[in-house]
């Protein structure tokens, strides 16, 4: 059995064993395990491959049970008073309603269950992390997993996972994984340059940025590149005071690294954005967007998950390649409005937290400000990337929203104390 397999299995079982006594460990275990599922698909090793998604079910059951066990004792972590929770709950309910008349019932039910699963993770994270010293651990798990992906991409890219146009068995969804990297880079950059962050975390993030950028270079995703530019511009816009100077430095250094890592083939593909009318994949996407809009007008209440890909009449064979249109086709206008409302209130809350914590000079206050700005800029990158990818099942939406609610609860509790 591979050493990597043994280490990962030890982490997984260890967190599962601790979770009944320390429920945050259940969330960490679930997040850790989810980072080694598709689309990353960097499994722990062949001996464990056959168990598939059952790993997710086991740790998920432990996570939910542990959180419910401790729920009455976590009164500092209100959940349902926040608009993020209300809109996400209504959106989740809508997925099951639309599934009742879905074009492909089985696929739509799977999509609805997946949405409900991440709503449960959202609830568990808020209840177990609000106002806690260990809040940042869940973000660090995502960051370390992204760096791990970058290391594999850099030193062992020929497994088929990080080579564009690899074999059909390749696990690398270049558009989505590149966008996942973009969502975490603002947070990594701010962690790396902010004096109030522990030195060990600063070093890990600073050392990991080149490897994460290298994943984007290998993916050659035009949507992720545009999202990266948007996130990079947002960082100095939403940072204030001394942190703005550090954030500008981080963006400049990141741009220099990108220029070094992004090869000629990458830039040739990026320049094709300006000549999209001559590129077949681009014209197919535009046709898919038109088809998706036309189908949405025909049935405004939605067709259910994956209906566009699995049989609805259209002029092209590609998917919608757009999260917003995917949501519109799958869950109807009412679902799209609920989803956009959920994203909107999350962005607004992150922005408000970044302002309310701006003048705090204590270590916790600086951390709250850094994380609020990092999540805000990461979500801006995600919003841009979602114009070009059709990932409704992107867990970072729920995870970032849950963390923003944790930040709100933490700020509220600290205000009551003072």
UniProtKB/TrEMBL annotation:
Principal subcellular localization: membrane
Pfam families per record: Wzy_C
Residue intervals of the O-antigen ligase-related domain: 214-340
Keywords: Membrane, Transmembrane, Transmembrane helix
Localization terms from the record: Membrane
Keyword Protease attached: no
Membrane-topology descriptor: Multi-pass membrane protein
Tree of life domain: Bacteria
TM annotation in the entry: 7-31, 55-73, 85-104, 134-155, 176-194, 223-239, 245-262, 328-348, 368-389
Region forming the signal peptide: none
A single Gene Ontology CC term: membrane
Name used for this protein in its record: O-antigen ligase-related domain-containing protein
């Amino acid at each position: 059995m591979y050493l990597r397999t043994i280490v990962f299995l030890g982490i997984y079982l260890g967190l599962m064993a601790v979770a009944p006594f320390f429920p945050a460990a259940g969330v960490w275990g679930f997040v850790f395990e989810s980072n080694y599922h598709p689309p990353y698909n960097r499994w722990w090793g062949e001996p464990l491959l056959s168990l598939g998604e059952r790993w997710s079910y086991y740790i998920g059951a432990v996570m939910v049970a542990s959180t419910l066990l401790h729920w009455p004792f976590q009164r500092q972590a209100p959940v349902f008073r926040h608009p993020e929770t209300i809109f996400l709950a209504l959106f989740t309910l809508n997925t099951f309603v639309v599934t009742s008349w879905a074009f492909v019932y089985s696929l739509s039910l799977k999509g609805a269950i997946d949405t409900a699963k991440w709503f449960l993770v959202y609830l568990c994270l808020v209840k177990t992390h609000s106002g806690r010293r260990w809040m940042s651990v869940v973000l660090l798990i995502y960051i370390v997993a992204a760096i791990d992906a970058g290391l594999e991409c850099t030193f062992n890219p020929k497994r088929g996972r990080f080579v564009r146009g690899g074999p059909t068995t390749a696990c690398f969804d270049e558009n989505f994984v590149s966008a996942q990297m973009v969502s975490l880079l603002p947070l990594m950059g701010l962690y790396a340059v902010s004096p109030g962050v522990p030195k060990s975390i600063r070093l890990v993030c600073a050392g990991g940025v080149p490897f994460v950028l290298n994943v984007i270079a290998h993916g050659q995703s035009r949507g992720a590149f545009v999202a990266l530019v948007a996130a990079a511009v947002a960082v100095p816009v939403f940072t204030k005071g001394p942190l703005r100077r550090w954030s500008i430095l981080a963006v400049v250094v990141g741009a220099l690294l990108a220029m070094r890592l992004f090869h000629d083939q990458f830039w040739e593909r990026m320049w094709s954005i300006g000549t999209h009318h001559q590129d077949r994949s681009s014209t197919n996407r535009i046709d898919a967007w038109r088809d998706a809009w036309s189908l949405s007008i025909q049935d405004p209440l939605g067709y259910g998950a994956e209906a566009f890909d699995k049989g609805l009449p259209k002029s092209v064979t590609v998917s919608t390649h757009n999260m917003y249109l995917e949501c519109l086709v799958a869950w109807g206008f009412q679902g799209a409005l609920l989803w956009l409302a959920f994203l909107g209130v999350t962005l607004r809350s992150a922005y408000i937290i970044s302002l309310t914590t701006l003048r705090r000079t204590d270590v916790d206050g600086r951390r709250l400000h850094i994380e609020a700005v990092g999540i805000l800029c990461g979500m801006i990158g995600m919003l841009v990337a979602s114009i070009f990818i059709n990932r409704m099942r992107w867990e970072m939406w729920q995870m970032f929203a849950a963390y923003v609610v944790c930040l709100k609860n933490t700020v509220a509790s600290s205000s009551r104390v003072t």
